[in-house]
Amino acid sequence: MNKPKMATEKGNSKIAMLLCQLEKMNEEVLVRDVETARLVTAKILHLIQTQVQFYSWFSVLGRGRRVGVFVSKGGTGVLFQILISASKELPPSEELMFQLHSLLAKVGPKDRKFGVKARLSGALNVTVDVVKQNLQNSKVLLPCLQVLRIYSNNSVNAISLGKTGMVEIIFKIVGPYSKKNTSLFKVALDALGALLKSKTNARRAVDSGHVPVLLALYLDWHRNDTRHRCMLIRKGLLVCLRNITNIKLGRRAFLEADGIRILYHSSTECLPVRTLDPLINTSSLIMRKCFPKNRLPVPTIKSAFHFQLPQVPPGGPVDQLYNQLSGVDDVVDESDDDEEAEGETDTENDEDKDQCSLNDDIETDLNKLHPNRNIGRPFEELKDYQKFFSELSEDFQGYSFDFSKSASTTSPSTYLFSSSSARFSRPAEVPTAQTPSPKHFQPPLLLGGFPIRRTGGGGSNVGSDCGSEGTEDEAGDAPLLEVPDTAQLLPLHDPDLYVEMVKGTQSVPQYAEVAYPDYFGHIAPMLKEPLLERIYGVQRSKIFQDIERLIHPNDILDKVVYDIDHPSSMIEENGESLKFNSQFESGNLRKAIQVRKYEYDLVLNADINSNHYHQWFYFEVSGMRTGTGYRFNIINCEKSNSQFNYGMQPLMYSVQEAIGGKPQWVRTGTDICYYKNHFARSSVATGGQKGKSYYTLTFTVTFIHKDDVCYFAYHYPYTYSTLKMHLSKLEDMRTPQIYLRQDVLCETLSGNTCPLLTITAMPESKSTDHICQFRNRPFIFLSARVHPGETNASWVMKGTLEFLMGTSPLAVNLREAYIFKIVPIDGMKDLNRQWQNPDPELHPTIYHTKSLLQYLAYIQRAPLVFCDYHGHSRKKNVFMYGCSVKETVWQSDISATSSDLQEDLGYRTLPKILSQIAPAFSLASSSFVVERSKESTARVVVWREIGVKRSYTMESTLCGCDQGKYKGLQISTRELEEMGAQFCVAMLRLKRLTSLRNHQNLLDLESDIIGTQSKNVSSCTTTYVLEEDEPSFLEAIDYSAESNDEDAEPESDVCGDGQENFDQLSDSETIHRK
């Protein structure tokens, strides 16, 4: 290894010597000696070229070091001066121009300021003149075009070159298919593609009629290049089209030239050849960009349901929503950057821009990074919350501590959700399943406006038609269908009790139906469900099917089969269309359109009082055939990426399977992918951003039962009525040793009660010591389900509650160690970003939950741990977000003293424990960085204002795990409930650790991870970002490309070596809310 190193040093010194010789020639005006200049540049070029060849064998020593040395010594500027001086000779030396531009083509990619230097020195114009003078001299023209492409990476240079007519000149160079000059054609197209990144040049090309020319050239090369030896030329033509179609004018010209049809047919012919995938991918991107933008097929993007708020802040988003005229909010934005001034910056590449924006979201204000317990409210306002902490003043003088007696007479308890106490009660239709024989459903059984159950054969039997009414006599002749008996497997589920709870649940749509899965219950499948392996080319296939709609419009049915905006839109009874329904609690499907015989476009409803947030879906399908694949396209998704691209499947619940003894949600679907579609998002719904599109989630299902009733859901449903049922059943589990109190914290905007649970152990006796120990237990504060679509958080909370109410020794010890305050469901509205300044009328659940914490802070009883359970749609595993001053500073460029970085490391203890005992938990996915965009979340506010150092958000995946025991598996309710239970076990271990007299033991316990974490943080600057931690997929997948954006990412090219980095159909887009 020493010989190559010595050779490298020798070569570098030789380059420095030759460069010094060139500088002398320049200084002493000896450049007139053209032959000497030519020999010196030839030697430098030879050294650089031999070095590149040399390091193809010894790549371990690094590549291009000689070029780097040359640039660092100022070689670029010297070459430009030699070039300018040589151009003054009449005529210029052809050989010298060839060698100078060949050398510049090698040096340019290594010099970040190459374009700026060329323009300021005047070398840019010299190269242009050389090109114009040597259009027929391919030897000189080739390196000149290579240099022009590098010049064009600078946007100012690209505009300047466009003004000199360089776009038109290159079009003269590029011609129809030929076996000659292919290298020249390839380089010319590379230069043209770089020039056309400029919107000004793209408009110039469109105005000159070059779009049809490019399409004709591509078609010619496609037809004649039968052996695919000129794929790079074909790719270069597509890159030019891709850059032109970044502007609206270019897309219009592309459509007028019938570009979609041309690229569609040519791409279809390329499909059998795997090596032509780069052409297919680029063609697909262009076609999708140019696909005419459509409105969503709904009358308005506003939610189909809304209710008047107690007060509407003037000028706020809700006020704007209320005041919008009908038909205004869903107008397609036709504007793009055509009218905007093109930024003339000297940034050579996007890396500089990316570096500038890197870590911009990290909090850099040290004053905000140190908790200051700024409660912000006088104690007089918080006195009313004393009633929620009666355990702090309870003397238990009226209670008997003979634990052999029934729980109802020995310990305090309040039950909130009995149907008799419900303020609102309404009829509810009880669902039933169809018999295995192909008979139609029977009408529900109603008595006095309320459904009743019929029993027989040892089970509960009912008849139903889910939506149609009938008399008891009419239903009497119906076959009695047995409801699966899940009492032993689901101790917290009771169908009768669930129906009673539904009657007292308030919903804006006033649903009167009960979904089969919610009525029957769900048993987690015993078999593990692996992540779905993605088939290569599936996304491309689906996109091409979408493009066929434009090419063959007569094949599209476009038949509305379900529409909650127009309930009268019903399909014929004996038709061949599926039947849809979502008129039940937590159901979400706004419209279903039959596109083809077995394909349906589905539109989700926005959150109530909103015009966006389309993620959760839950709907019913019936009337299916067996042995046929039905394709479902949810066409108004908003997030730029999804775990559906990484192995996640939607969930399906079959009623026929439930009757057969398998009442369970199962992962289902094939050909699953998630991609951007041609439905435009209004700027009204994107915060003023224009040019955004919706995304499509598509999956195919083959049903195994004819005329079954099946339900599809984004994740395992968990309704508010289910929570009420579970809390009622937990009350039945209470033993005399458990202190359980259920209070009504507040009433939600929709009129439902928000429960507050207090769980701990009863004191051993009425003695002063036991009462004192009872009152002085540390508080643990838990909350869940702030976002309505994050049902996994509710399942985790269910696991926590069941563990806390259990009889195991661990549960007993845990109750004796802490007092748990739990808000199991925060109103199920998107309220997580309202914690800084919640409004008591607009955000009652958040306002009163925060008030509870403020009260505890005032009485010096702030919780030991605060944890908010959430769900995450873009990452795998279960993980935590916490708050740390030190780790936030590590991620930023701010300077801080050692005193600024001092903090208790105890915030890492709980995540560390969870990583050791919970198989689904990943410490590597956790982060403790404080971001500005999260300063209004519960985690940051409780840490900053209440002073809780162990303030966390615990995120549970909606997909599955990529590490540990469950690696490669999709997550189910079993693992989610297990996670909730393991959280409790971790709390018990935390108690033991924090009880250590020598606090240094706790620090020593964590020292093994602190050092490694600091290394990981310093080496990976994106650990704090809520990005997907996924490897690049084999297929080029366009998840997040906003193909309407004008600032398309630059093409990555390698100069002069005949190779090219094929562009992936993917651009970065800012992550939206989780």
From TrEMBL:
Reactions catalysed, as given in the entry? C-terminal L-alpha-aminoacyl-L-glutamyl-L-glutamyl-[tubulin] + H2O = C-terminal L-alpha-aminoacyl-L-glutamyl-[tubulin] + L-glutamate; (L-glutamyl)(n+1)-gamma-L-glutamyl-L-glutamyl-[protein] + H2O = (L-glutamyl)(n)-gamma-L-glutamyl-L-glutamyl-[protein] + L-glutamate
- What subcellular locations does the record give? Cytoplasm, Cytosol; Mitochondrion; Nucleus
Sorted alphabetically, which PANTHER family does this protein's record hold?
Answer: CYTOSOLIC CARBOXYPEPTIDASE, CYTOSOLIC CARBOXYPEPTIDASE 1
Please name the Gene3D superfamilies in this protein's record. 2.60.40.3120, Leucine-rich Repeat Variant (1.25.10.10), Zn peptidases (3.40.630.10)
Taxonomically, what lineage is the organism? Eukaryota, Metazoa, Chordata, Craniata, Vertebrata
Query: Record keywords: Metal-binding included?
Result: yes
Compositional bias (Acidic residues): 332-353, 1043-1054
What cofactor(s) does the depicted protein rely on? Zn(2+)
Record-listed E.C. numbers: 3.4.17.24
UniProt protein name: Cytosolic carboxypeptidase 1
Q: Which GO terms describe its biological process?
A: proteolysis
- Source domain of life is Eukaryota
Family stated for the protein in its record: Belongs to the peptidase M14 family.
The UniProt keyword set, sorted, is:
Carboxypeptidase, Cytoplasm, Hydrolase, Metal-binding, Metalloprotease, Mitochondrion, Nucleus, Protease, Zinc
- Give a Pfam family name: TPR_CCP1_N
| Location of the region described as Disordered in the Swiss-Prot/TrEMBL record | 332-369, 1041-1074
Species whose genome carries this gene = Poecilia mexicana
